[in-house]
Automatic annotation (TrEMBL):
GO terms for biological process: methylation; pantothenate biosynthetic process. It is found in: Cytoplasm. Belongs to the PanB family. The lineage of its organism: Bacteria, Pseudomonadati, Bacteroidota, Flavobacteriia, Flavobacteriales. Catalyzes the reversible reaction in which hydroxymethyl group from 5,10-methylenetetrahydrofolate is transferred onto alpha-ketoisovalerate to form ketopantoate. It comes from Chryseobacterium salivictor. Gene3D superfamilies: Phosphoenolpyruvate-binding domains. This is 3-methyl-2-oxobutanoate hydroxymethyltransferase. It is an enzyme of class 2 (transferase). Keywords: Cytoplasm, Magnesium, Metal-binding, Methyltransferase, Pantothenate biosynthesis, Transferase. One of its GO terms (cellular component) is cytoplasm. Its cofactor is Mg(2+).
Length: 271
C-alpha cells in the first residue's frame, strides 16, 4: 500500500460534516509547491490558490490582472505539494463573468490542467447561470460574497461591505441562493460579524470568513499575511503568527555581511 493511500483526504463532504459537527474549518492560501507542502503538513483543511497571487506573488495593486493560464500554473505547483487538504482554485477576473459557457470552459481547464478539486467564484444572483452550469458538470463550487476584490472598481474602496440594510439583505439572499444552487461552501469577506453569524446560521453549507468574525464555520487568511511577510498590509482582522519579513531581511543582511567579510564560506563549507 502506498503512503498516500493511508492519508485521509479532505473532501467537500468532510467540510459539510465539520459544519454539522461544529468543528471549525481552516483554510490558507498557497501559490507554490514548497509553501503548499508546509501548509498541508501543518494540518490545514483546505488550500486556496487565491487570485490574491496577483498581489502577493506578482505585485499588482488589484487581483484583476492575473490570467487563467497564470492561475492554472500556480494550481499545478500547489497540487504537487498537497497530500491531504482540499484544493480550491480561484477563477480569475474575466474567466467566468461574460457568459456561462465561458465560465464552464474556465472551470474545466482549472480542474483538468490545474488539477484543482474545486473552484471558487465571486458573486451571487448575477452569476447564477454560470454557477449552475459548473456544478451540473460535476465541479464543486465555493462561493464568495461580501468584499469581492474582483469588483473593487465598482466598490471604489476595500472598506467593510454590507453595513447598510439593503446590501446586507442582498448578501443574505445571495447566500441562500448559492446554497440552493449547490455550492459546497461560501467565503464571507469583510462584513459585519453579526451579519456573518446570521448567514452562517441560516444556511446548511459552511461559511469561511475573512474579516467576518467568529460566527463563521471556518476562517481563511492569506498565507503571506499570516506569516508576516507583508509589512505594508495590516487590516484589523489580520493575526500575524510570525514576523518573517524581519527574519528574512535579517538573514539576507547576515549573508551579505558574511560574504563581504570573507567569513562565508569557511573550510567546512568548502570541498
Ligand atoms: O484570493 C484570495 O486570497 C481570496 C481570499 C482572501 C479568500 O479570495
Amino acid at each position: 500500500m502506498s503512503v498516500h493511500s493511508e492519508i485521509k483526504k479532505i473532501t467537500t463532504e468532510t467540510l459539510r460534516k465539520m459544519k454539522f459537527d461544529k468543528e471549525k474549518i481552516t483554510m490558507l492560501t498557497a501559490y507554490d509547491f514548497t509553501t503548499a507542502k508546509m501548509v498541508d503538513a501543518g494540518g490545514i483543511d483546505a488550500i486556496l490558490i487565491g487570485d490574491s497571487a496577483a498581489n502577493v506573488m506578482a505585485g499588482h495593486e488589484t487581483t484583476l490582472p492575473i490570467t487563467l493560464d497564470q492561475m492554472i500554473y500556480h494550481t499545478q505547483c500547489v497540487v504537487r505539494g498537497v497530500d491531504r487538504a482540499l484544493i480550491v482554485a480561484d477563477l480569475p477576473f474575466g474567466s467566468y463573468q461574460s457568459n456561462s459557457e465561458k465560465a464552464l470552459e474556465s472551470a474545466v481547464r482549472m480542474m483538468k490542467e490545474g488539477g484543482a478539486h474545486s473552484v471558487k467564484i465571486e458573486g451571487g444572483k448575477e452569476i447564477e447561470e454560470s454557477i449552475t452550469k459548473i456544478i451540473n458538470a460535476g465541479i464543486p463550487v465555493m462561493g464568495h460574497l461580501g468584499l469581492t476584490p474582483q469588483s473593487i472598481y465598482q466598490f471604489g474602496t476595500y472598506k467593510v461591505r454590507a453595513k447598510e440594510d439593503e446590501e446586507a439583505e442582498k448578501l443574505m439572499s445571495d447566500a441562500k441562493l448559492l446554497e440552493e444552487l449547490g455550492c459546497f461552501a461560501l467565503v464571507l469577506e469583510k462584513i459585519p460579524a453579526d451579519l456573518a453569524k446570521r448567514v452562517s446560521e441560516s444556511i446548511s453549507i459552511p461559511t469561511i470568513g475573512i474579516g467576518a468574525g467568529a460566527g463563521c464555520d471556518g476562517q481563511v487568511l492569506v498565507y503571506h499575511d499570516m506569516v508576516g511577510m507583508n509589512k505594508g498590509f495590516s487590516p484589523k482582522f489580520l493575526r500575524r503568527y510570525l514576523d518573517l519579513y524581519t527574519e528574512i531581511t535579517g538573514a539576507v543582511s547576515s549573508f551579505v555581511k558574511d560574504v563581504k567579510t570573507g567569513d562565508f564560506p569557511n573550510e567546512n563549507e568548502s570541498y
